[in-house]
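Hey,

The postdoc asked me to send both predictions to you directly instead of through the lab channel. I've kept everything plain text so nothing gets mangled by the mail client. Protein one:
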Amino acid sequence: MFLENTVNHKEQFGWIEVICGSMFSGKTEELIRRLKRAQFAKQKVEIFKPAIDVRYDDEMVVSHDANEIRSTPVPAAANIRILADTCDVVGIDEAQFFDDEIIAVCNDLANKGIRVIVAGLDMDFKGNPFGPMPALMATAEYVTKVHAVCTRTGNLAQFSYRKSTKDDLVLLGETEEYEPLSRAAYYKAMLKEKVKVIEVKDPKEVSKNHNTTNE
């Protein structure tokens, strides 16, 4: 949960909100909702996304439900610091794809009195913490973890399972590349992958090599 009203109105300060979760969990949807509320309140809002994210549109931030809001694509986190200096609210989508400078940028903006709302994947397809997201979650005042629905069990999903065999850490894709899985389903899927790569040797060949070694 996050608060929009402070107790001490004389103290001018901002804060950081992080929205995290797996693929198809509604992160961008929630980011857009909060930003549009700020726009409706006549606040000066700027939205940024990594320039590499061109899945739906070059400039728009678009959710899986086709909600959208205009954004500024930037190649590096340092660009945000310059472009967002006079804003009331700053939104950042797909934060996991930014360099580690995004952590200092978000904190610098918050220290200047700006409300910073960040959305991103908390784990990569291997189940490891993704890029700068852990540090952003640690320094944020408010962290909201949203969940998808597991495509195999119907339970809450927090893992983004990659269906393709590509091993690149950054691989933009949709349902043809990823599916959200629960912990149990993800564990079983990863276990099956490990079994596939185990080399199965012919018992006769193993016995022959063993006899040769003993001689």
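Protein two:
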Amino acid sequence: MTKPSPKISKNSRERQAEEPQVSQLIQARVKKLRDLAEAGIPGFATGFKPDVSAQAFAQKFAMITESDVSDAMVRMAGRIIALRIMGKATFLRLRDASGDVQAYLARDTLGADDYKLLKQLDIGDIIGLSGVPFRTHTGELSVNVKDLKILTKALRPLPEKWHGLTDVETRYRQRYVDLIVNPKVREIVRSRTRIITEIRNFLTDQGFLEVETPMMQSIPGGATAKPFVTYHHSLDRNLYLRIAPELYLKRLLVGGFDKIFEINRNFRNEGISTQHNPEFTMLEFYQAYATYSDLMAMIEQMVSKVALEVLGTLKVTYDGQEVNLTPPWDRMTVREALLRYADLTEDEVDDRNSLFIKAVEMGLQVDKDDPRGKLWMAIFDEVVENKLWGPVFVCNYPVEVSPLARRNEDDPTVTDRFELYICGREIANAFTELTDPLDQRSRFEEQVLARAAGDEEAHFLDEDFLRALEFGMPPAAGAGVGIDRVVMLLTDSRSIREVILFPHMRPEKGGQ
């Protein structure tokens, strides 16, 4: 039987068709590289020290007029992103990490021999230049180049139609090119760094201590997720990339630290989507003698403060709609959310059989023996979550899906736990911590049974963590905040891949 040929997307076909042309252009650039070598000019220089960036240049010489003659010499370096040779004069646009600047090169200034070398330049080359600032007849602040040096000869051309590409996979795969030609992507990177800095500053100002916990763990815990497994030859044992730092941070509470946080990389062996990447960044913080209500107020304050610092406003536009981050934020229980958004009656929401029938009617993968809490969350995830534009704290999650959270004193079938939703996405998960080692052991044992029954995301039983609890952990509350999702919100990014520099991708042809 003939095996069917794999389908090739339109964009993949376009890329394959472009390869021969790209190969010819590379050969032409290699020839230019050889011509430079014959002229005694290296195509890959050693070092160059610019003394001003494009942004600083624009600020420093903003007051220069067309009639001004400046003798202030500047040294700049960057990549050529536009090049126009016109006989005795050439204009090029130089891009560095801060922005763009126009450079003017005249044959009379450079000399005939050096000016001829401009023919060896291509868009994408990295150069260093020295010159004086001036303003052109069209009013653009520019550099009148007195000296130019080739620093790196780019052998592969930048794609001419990069801005028109609809193949987002190419952008993510070749992020280095995306960063060269797309200023918005570079701005997201800067915003991400600033957001993380502001979060770190907020917690430090609140008296929290930043710590580091193991990324390779003998027992993965702290979240419901399937871990990645690796092997340590010297110890002759399996280790797991952490799915969360939670159980180690709680050990530090036992050890006497009252306020701790970690901005950490987590790894979960799950599918890839616009909201999920197998490797992602989380903030987790824990505070002794606090409750989940305290953390609601704290997260509300933190996210709104970061938004104000980074964007200058609490009214954020996301996917064409506005979300107002001004505190106080709404609060509702899981049960209330199901009644409001899932078309369930008071009787249905409390009756396990009715919930099961509803879930089956919705086409959800549920088991006939699933308890009410699991059915609640199956329906919640399918119907309610994407309707929570928020910001809104959803509270009192069922015990069955909250193995590390403290039971609610008024209703022991639910826990003192909340999740924060903004724009239909979970942003944070927090709860008053379970400190009773006997109750914790019982819940771990239930998770072990679930794992034995085939649930690969169920918790392991961590004897050392139980031993730590037996020494006594103070009453506390802890939270996990998805850094990537906060960045998505504050940069108006629809996909998590936009805010991760090098997201994981399916292998392309050739194996990478």
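Summary for protein two, as requested: DSSP finds 16 helices and 18 strands in the chain.

Thanks,
C.
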